[in-house]
Amino acid sequence: MNWSIIITEKAKKSLRKIPSSDYKKISNIIDKLKLNPFLPSAKKLKASTDVWRLRVGNYRIFLKLFPNEKVVFVFNVKRRTSITY
Predict the structure, then answer these.
(1) Tell me: the pLDDT tens digits for 39-75?
(2) Domains in the chain, start-ordered, CATH in brackets?
């Protein structure tokens, strides 16, 4: 069974500001999350039990996973800088 993807308005707003070449890469990764959200580049953040991040070039996709409901909640997309974390 495929996972459902929910993208917040904040994440959608961030995606609209990203250059088209990076946007294509990020949207491809988000599409892959439907099949398997536990991609090799996915890392669980230490400060939280259910927040994960995905590396896509210079960008990070922050998400929450709800395994019982098979839902991926994308809540932010940020360009990686020295203050991203």
Answers:
(1) 888 898 887 678 999 999 899 999 999 989 999 999 9
(2) 4-79 (3.30.2310.20)
